[in-house]
């Protein structure tokens, strides 16, 4: 038991036995805790003047410290309690390129509107790097483009996307064209390969680590690609042809199982999850 709390209780009750009752312990235990303080500071804390006890001058000094310590602890608990109601501070988020480029900005705007005192630093990279950064606490939370099988990771689906094959309408499409794909480690790459397999295509592949550059290459008639339908806007549809593949994928929010979820992190997780559930 904390000997300072014991001292305060003994002074309040002016009795070792009553202090023991109020602290749900024994009178010998109370005596041992007071003795610990006396040994620590090499002083005498109480003078015994039957039937009462009183503090020595050194005991008064230790009591003053004990009370200050208790006040500081109570203030700390109050601050922590208040902080649990507050959403303020900083968080870091790692996102895959596709989700980051197409969806993340809107989520960050919603977050800023709801919680103006919470600042989220977002980093875009491929899914493998996001996973690695979450596992090593480089970022607080991550968004990836494929399901993760890892017993250190919690994941939740937050959005669904459709993959399509696109090509330049003027040039047309044939299987001998170059196919632009994302780099290994990208969640998009996995679904690009699934789409090509479904069409029994085995084209020459050129890796590019940017969805935008890939689309620009296809618009320029340099080849074709399999890409997220969400990447395409009205302007793209005027130039590009699209082939449905019946290939869908999910985006997942991931965090380390041992990551402490404070109020800030809970607010961020809720923002992503509740919108999808609705």
Automatic annotation (TrEMBL):
Residues 1-56 form the HTH lysR-type domain. This is LysR family transcriptional regulator. PROSITE patterns: HTH_LYSR (PS50931). Belongs to the LysR transcriptional regulatory family. InterPro entries: LysR_HTH_N (IPR000847), LysR_subst-bd (IPR005119), WH-like_DNA-bd_sf (IPR036388), WH_DNA-bd_sf (IPR036390). It comes from Staphylococcus warneri. Keywords: DNA-binding, Transcription, Transcription regulation.
């Amino acid at each position: 038991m904390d000997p300072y709390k014991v001292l305060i209780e003994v002074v309040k009750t002016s009795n070792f036995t009553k202090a023991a009752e109020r602290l749900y312990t024994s009178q010998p235990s109370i005596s041992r805790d007071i003795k610990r303080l006396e040994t620590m500071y090499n002083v005498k804390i109480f003078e015994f003047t039957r039937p009462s006890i009183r503090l020595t001058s050194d005991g008064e000094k230790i009591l003053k410290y004990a009370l200050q310590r208790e006040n500081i602890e109570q203030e700390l608990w109050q601050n922590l309690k208040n902080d649990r109601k507050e959403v303020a501070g900083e968080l870091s988020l790692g996102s895959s390129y596709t989700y980051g480029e197409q969806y993340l900005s809107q989520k960050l705007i919603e977050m800023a509107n709801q919680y103006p005192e919470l600042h989220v630093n977002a980093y875009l990279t491929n899914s493998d790097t996001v996973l690695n950064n979450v596992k090593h606490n480089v970022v607080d939370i991550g968004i990836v483009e494929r399901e993760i099988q890892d017993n250190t990771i919690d994941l939740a689906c937050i959005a669904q996307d459709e993959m399509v094959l696109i090509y330049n309408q003027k040039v047309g499409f044939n299987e001998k064209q170059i196919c632009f794909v994302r780099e290994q480690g990208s969640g998009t790459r996995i679904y690009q390969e699934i789409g090509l397999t479904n069409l029994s295509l085995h084209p020459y592949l050129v890796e590019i680590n940017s969805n935008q550059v890939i689309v620009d290459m296809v618009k320029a008639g340099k080849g074709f690609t399999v890409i997220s339908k969400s990447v395409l806007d009205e302007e793209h549809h005027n130039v590009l042809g699209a082939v449905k593949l019946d290939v869908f994928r999910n985006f997942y929010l991931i965090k380390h199982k041992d990551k402490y979820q404070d109020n800030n992190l809970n607010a961020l997780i809720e923002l992503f999850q509740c919108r999808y559930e609705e």
